[in-house]
Structure formats: structure tokens, C-alpha cells
Amino acid sequence: MNTKFRQFSLIIKGKFYWLCVTEGTVMGEERLLTGREWLCTTAASFCIVSCIVSLFTIAFIGINRYLYVCWHAAYDTVFTRSRTVAAIFSIWVVGVALDLPNHVGWSSHWFDTKTQKCLWDRTIAYHYTILFVVVGMLLPFVITILCYWRVFAHIRVAKQRILRTQLQVRVLED
């Protein structure tokens, strides 16, 4: 995978996340929301999108490592420059798509006094919260776990094969 594209995606995500973390802490609820609801909505969107992009990027890296280790012959075919760019673009589209329901009335953004951040209102639409958690958090988590589990299993089998071969060579030498 072209690491420059991956790094660029993570840098942009990091800048969005910085905005998400600092806007409520620096300004506080009254100053942030007094005539500036758009700022809370914008910061919440950046936060949600950057979170989703981060999780899916980690899953994408897991897929990349899985193919490199377990299916090395297919790696160069799958991870071409254009496909990598398309995958990163798709990850950003997924991030925006998962925040879109907050802008079309299914849910909304609000200032969370507990975390001092603008996020989506988890109490308005439980269906959206379930969608967000399952698709935006659990799906990339499961993909990442499965990919690295398969990498670990592949390495373990290869290690056992090498140890068996070494043992057979020692037996033949004796």
C-alpha cells in the first residue's frame, strides 16, 4: 500500500480530531452555543467523520497486512496505487455518509457537557446510535481483529512447518 496516501489520510483525520477535542474545552458551552450552533454542528461532523475514518483506516491497514502476509501473490494486484486511492476515498465517503443522518433530521448534533465536546445526540434516535455503533465502530473492529488473527494463525502455521523441517533435518543427520 502506498504509505504516502495512508499518511495523508491520517494527517487530515488528525487535524479534524484536534478541532473536535479542543472546541468545547477552549470555548465552553455558553460561548460555543450562543449564536454559534453552526460551530458545534461543524465540529461534531468533523469529529464523527474523523473517528469513523480512523477506525476504517485501521481496518484497511489490517486488510493490507493480511493480504501481504497470507496472500502475498495477490498483494501487488490488489494494492495498486489507483485502488489504494479509491479505497481511501471510499473510507472518507463512508465517514461522511455515517454523519449525514445528523444533517437530514434522523439525529442531531449537540454539546455534550460530560465530555465537553459537540457530538451526535445519542438520546434522540436510538436507531441511528445502533447504526453508528455497529457500522462505524464494530464493523472495522471485527475486520481488524479477524485480519490480524488470520495473520497470527498464518505465522504460527509457518513457524510450526519450519520447526518440523528442522527436526526432520536433524533426524536425517543423526
Describe what you observe in this structure:
The chain is elongated, with a radius of gyration of 22 Å. Helix content is 79%, strand content 5%. It has a single domain (3-146), classed as Rhopdopsin 7-helix transmembrane proteins, CATH 1.20.1070.10. The relative contact order is 0.14. The protein has 174 residues and is mainly α. A two-stranded antiparallel sheet has the order 1-2. Helix 3 crosses helix 4, helix 3 (37-70) runs antiparallel to helix 5 (81-99) and helix 3 (37-70) runs parallel beside helix 6. A hairpin with a 4-residue loop joins strand 1 and strand 2. It has 6 helices and 2 strands, in the order αααααββα.
Structural key phrases:
174 residues; mainly alpha; Rhopdopsin 7-helix transmembrane proteins; two-stranded antiparallel ribbon; 6 helices; 5% strand
List the helices and strands and how they pair.
Elements: H1 3-27, H2 29-33, H3 37-70, H4 72-78, H5 81-99, E1 109-112, E2 117-120, H6 126-173
Antiparallel strand pairs: 1-2
Helix pairs in contact: 1-3, 3-4, 3-5, 3-6
CATH class: Mainly Alpha
| Strand percentage | under 5%
User: CATH H-level name... which superfamily?
Assistant: Rhodopsin 7-helix transmembrane proteins
Main beta sheet: 2 strands, antiparallel
Which stretches of 5+ consecutive residues score pLDDT under 50?
A: none
What is the helix tally?
Answer: 6
Helix content: over 70%
Number of domains: 1
Tell me, rounded to a whole number, the average pLDDT. 82
CATH architecture heading? Up-down Bundle
Q: Which strand order does the major sheet show?
A: 1-2
Topology, number of strands: 2
First-last Cα distance: 46 Å
Q: What is Rg? A: 22 Å
- Secondary structure class reads mainly alpha
Question: How would the global form be characterised?
Answer: elongated
CATH fold topology = Rhopdopsin 7-helix transmembrane proteins
| N to C succession of SSEs | HHHHHEEH
